[in-house]
Structures are given as structure tokens and as C-alpha cells.
Amino acid sequence: MDPILQLRGVRRSFGRIQAVDGVDLDVPRGSIYGILGPNGAGKTTTIRMILNIYTPDEGEILFDGRRLDRRATDRIGYLPEERGLYKRLKVGEHLEYMARLKGVPAGEARRRVGQWLERFELADRAMAKTNELSKGMQQKVQFIGAIIAEPEVVVLDEPFSGLDPINVELLREIIAEIQDSGRTVLFSTHVMEQAEQICDHIFLIHQGRKVLDGRLDEIVQDYPVDKVRLVGDFQESALRALPHVTTVRRDGNEWKVWLDEEGSPQQLLTELVKLGRVDLFSASRPPLSEIFIREVKGSGAASPPAGMSGGGPDGAGGGRMETTESTSSIGREGGMR
Fold it and tell me: Which CATH superfamily is domain 3-216 in?
């Protein structure tokens, strides 16, 4: 692995609050690296140390093999979660200024501003003041400001805030282009589903401490396929009585079934066929949100925690975080697909 960014034993406190506690990280060059965790976990403090806004109390941060300094941070673009626009500047002026701050020549800065405003369908707002824009437009301008100098590392803190689905998809497309160019993206969010869709590496932080990090696909592979969605003419009592079933929930016309550590989808399917017709059968690994909760609680139990958004047996509300890996699926015709 060729790390562009390394954290070694990094700690940072604010009074008696230990915001970041002994974090070690290696961010691979050219990766989309998720910095994930609930609100207040230490994500923003970690990011601000990477940006040299905060200095670690202990440990060190290396950028491209050298201790982080101001020259290194000039090679980093940053989209903060909070708004950071110059309210009295016009959109075009603001973006040109952001480019010039990172060393882009004036003529090239103007060219890039025009190019990006066209792509984001904001060309007609170039002369508008930034405080006259809607929240979504402001977010797009701020995103352009983070990438306009073509930095080697782009740090995005909750980049989809305030955006409609069309613009979310546009940002995803641009993030992929940044990676394709060999550059690195740090993507910070508390929405695990977004990370599953975008990131190839992740770092999970909780109460200032690293919970886990590594390649997303390898992390997910370490967890068993223990959740099954199925459609068929079954009674709940019959499903509960099947071997290795821990939890059964009805969700519309579907059943959701969780298995214990010794159960397998293949065994469950064999038993289901004995009970009756199976119209749909889809087995999956736990979503990232559930993996995070299991790691924090130190439990490998197959049944997800109560109240877990989108994946738990209580079916608690919120977004459906089921970005999972299907291992088998049977359709209405009975064939595997």
C-alpha cells in the first residue's frame, strides 16, 4: 500500500474531553476513504488535525511521507460541513479567490470557474452574491471551491447536505472522476449507507477511538450471511420454529429472518421448501451500520440491536441501510438468480 496520509498515535483533547484518542491510520493513495461514525465521535476533530487547523496533543501526521505542514495543506481541498462562503462576494469572484489561494494562475482560475459553473448548471448565477443562493446552490458552490485547484487530497465533510437526488448523483460522479485521476478523497459522514455506496476503504470511530479500518469489501466479508428476505405463504410460528432462526419480522408482503452463528441460508432454504412455496429468497451480510454497532458493543450476535435504523429486527424507522451482498435469490419462477 502507498499511503498518502498517515496518522500515528494521534490524540487531541479539549479540556477534560478526549476528542481523539490514540488513532493510527494509513490512507491509501487514490482511495475513497470513509471517515465514519455517529455525531460527536471525533470525525471532525480528526479532519481538522489532518488540515492542520488543530495540532495533535500527541502523535504525528504524515502527508506523502513527510510531517504535515502548511505546504502540505496547500495540496488538500476541504468542503466543511458548515457553510464557509464569503457572503458579500459574487459566486464567480468567490470561486476565483478560492482557486488563487491554492496557487492557480488568474487566467486558469477564471477558465475553471466557468467550466465548473456550467457543469453544475450555475453559470447564470456567476454574478449573484453567495448569500442570495439557495442552500443547495451554496453547497454546490462550496463543493466547487474544494476541488477547483485540483488538490491531491479532497476532504468532504457531509458533502450531500442540502442536495436533491440529481445533484447527489452528480457529486458521486465527480468523486469517482477524482479517484480515477489518481487522487484521494476523504469522505466523512454519519450516514453509513452513503459510505457503502461510495467508499472502498473505511475508518470507523466511536468516542474518539478507532473501532476498525481497512478495505470495505474485506471488512464486510468477515461477517456471516445471517439475514434473509423471503416471500411465501408461511406462518410466523412455523418460521420461528425452524433451526437456527433467532428473529422473524413481517415487512409488508415480505418476511425478514435472522440466523444464529451456526445457521446458513442454504439450510434455511431447504427447510422452507418443505413448508411450502418460496416466491423470493434473498440472503445478505449485515449492512455497515449494523457492523458498526456490533463492533462498538463487542458482540458478534447475529440478531441486530433493537431500534437499529433500516436493518434491525424491530424495523425502526429512518433510512433503509440494506446495502448488502446477496448470496442467493430465488424469484417467482423458482430459479436461482
Answer: P-loop containing nucleotide triphosphate hydrolases (3.40.50.300)
Question: How do residues 185-212 score in pLDDT, each as one tens digit?
Answer: 999 988 888 899 999 999 999 999 999 9
Pairing of strands 227-232, 278-284: antiparallel
CA distances from 213 to 194, 202, 203, 220 (A): 17, 5, 4, 11
| CA 169, 173, 179, 183 torsion-angle sign | negative
**How far is residue 220 from each of residues 43, 228, 251, 291, measured CA to CA in Å?**
21, 16, 24, 8
According to DSSP, the residues that pair with 319 across neighbouring strands are none
Give dist(CA 311, CA 249) in Å, integer.
11
Each domain of the chain, given as residue ranges in start order, spans 3-216, 223-330
Interaxial angle between packed helices 91-101 and 106-119, expressed in degrees from 0 to 180 and rounded to the nearest 10: 130
What's the CA gap between 250 and 277, in Å, rounded? 17
Residue 210: the pLDDT is: 94
CA distances 121 to 176, 179, 217, Å, are: 19, 23, 35
